[in-house]
Each structure stands twice: as C-alpha cells, then as structure tokens.
Amino acid sequence: MDWKTIIYQYSLQLTRNRWDAEDLTQEAWLKLMNAIEQKPERTISKAYLYRVPLENNIGKHQTPPASMMQGGVWCFRHSSRAAYDLNTVSGL
Asked: What are the tens digits of pLDDT across the range 68-79?
C-alpha cells in the first residue's frame, strides 16, 4: 500500500467525512513532501504517516485563544468595536 492511501484511509477514520479526509490528506502529503525535501535521508515509518494527519486534525479543532473571544464572539480584530460590529450584524 502506498503512503497516500495510508494517509487517506487514516484521515477518513479521523474525520468520517470524505471531503475533510481529502483536505487532511492533501495537507499531510504536503508536510510529508516538505519533510523529505528538507532531509532526504529520513526514514518514513507508518507511525510518522499516522502522526501527520492526526496533528493537522487536532489543530483544526482547537478553540481560538481567549484573547480573541469577546462575549462568546470570535473577533478577528481584537477590539470592542469589532465585537460590536459582529453583534450588530448577527442581530444580537
């Protein structure tokens, strides 16, 4: 079985969604290719193949830092004006 198939099947188990699994596979594949390009003598184990998509998936589901949250609203510009604008638009 080739590396891309291993990564895709594991990504599918993690996400339970074909579209997300494809995205996760692409991201993991790019990281893998960059790692090999930086260090060509690197040995790629199955554990490494599983670790890359797992870390990418965990990163996608982390909550934003508390400093970017105001009143339960995620503010792109950390200011009270941004929170007001978001709340006004959403009708809160």
From this structure: 555 555 544 444
User: Which pLDDT does position 54 carry in this prediction?
Assistant: 85
Residue 79 vs residue 23, higher pLDDT: 23
Say how many residues make up the chain.
Answer: 92
- C-alpha 16/C-alpha 27 separation (Å) is 17
- pLDDT of res. 86: 44
Residue with tokens 């670790």: 51
Helix and strand numbers (H, E) in the chain are 4, 2
**Rounded to two decimals, what is the model's pTM?**
0.60
Structure tokens at 45: 């184990």
91: three-class secondary structure by DSSP: coil
Where in the sequence is the domain holding 17, given as residue range(s)? 3-60
Q: Are residues 7 and 41 in the same domain?
A: yes
**Beta strands in the chain, from DSSP E residues, in sequence order:** 69-70, 73-74
